[in-house]
Amino acid sequence: MKHVMWAVATAVFCAAPVWAQDGLSGPDAFAGIADEQARSVALFEEMGKVLTHPRCLNCHPVTGGPTQGDDMHPHSPPVVRGEADFGAAGMNCNVCHGTANMQLTSGSGSIPGHEPWSLAPVSMGWQGASLADICTQIKDPERNGGKSLEDLHEHNAHDGLVGWGWEPGEGRTPAPGSQELFGALTRAWIDTGAACPS
Amino acid sequence: MTTFRVNGRDHDLDIDPDTPLLWVLRDELRLTGTKFGCGIAQCGACTVMLDGMPRRSCVTPISMVEGSEIVTIEAIEGPEADAVRAAWTAIDVPQCGWCQSGQIMSATALLQAIPKPTDGDINDAMAGNVCRCATYVRIRQAIHDAAKTLEG
């Protein structure tokens, strides 16, 4: 019986598309969608699994300070956004967050860290926004920090703080897939016209 | 080997790079004014100045302070620190005192950034410093008093 179960498990594993990683599909998974705009929308919806993951949303609040955890509860200790998206005067983000994740010595878990570390500006906040609104927002240079679509690809594919989402330290669920896959999805989305969901 | 400066003295320590700065201050350098409260950056009792900015030493790996200047409650000085110390003493802010070195470091950092803070500024800057004796009313008063002193 064990052999049968092993064979079934192996068959299922091998049948999984090689372009999929931990809940995120790669661009090839959408190659069968003939209509380019529909394919572009589908690609963005796949990107949305990353964009709306708590690892990203927690530091993209619409107002106020960051949230924490997979349930996105308010940050503890209480913190405010501050004028520079870096906390209050006298208690900025770097009071606790260092240049890398730090394993807690007392108890389990870790304090997340990266250089640099800060909140996304208000114009880039998208907690609670629909995927359609997020799409329009991140394409808008007035709200995305003046980024072109190519800049957006660079940001998604190579920015270190974006990449932290897949290496968030003990006690946090990583964003789905990998930054490489997220970058490939972004590339394919742009190449198909960067269409947004309606 | 990690090289850093604490309260004006240079140190070269061969120590596990993951060791929290707080452990090094208290156990290696015997600077016990900085307190262990929670160990998870929730209470602020371990606050020190790292290159002029407040930092929770319990979540600061010693590897992160290579080449840095650290100032603890034993040596904090300057107009803001002096004003805070005087204001704290004048109205006997501490009760048990455990959190107070962290409170003083954060209050000093606040006054360095905002010489005349509002209640809102104080709330924002001091929110990460917990006091189990609930001396918050006196802490707020002392910060306002220190700010007045700094006005001249």
From TrEMBL, chain B:
Q: Which residues form the 2Fe-2S ferredoxin-type domain?
A: 1-76
GO molecular function terms attached to this record: 2 iron, 2 sulfur cluster binding; metal ion binding; oxidoreductase activity
Question: Which key words tag this protein in UniProt?
Answer: 2Fe-2S, Iron, Iron-sulfur, Metal-binding, Oxidoreductase
One Pfam family per UniProt: Fer2_2
Q: Does the keyword Iron-sulfur apply?
A: yes
The molecule here is called 2Fe-2S iron-sulfur cluster binding domain-containing protein
Q: Which organism is it from?
A: Paracoccus aestuariivivens
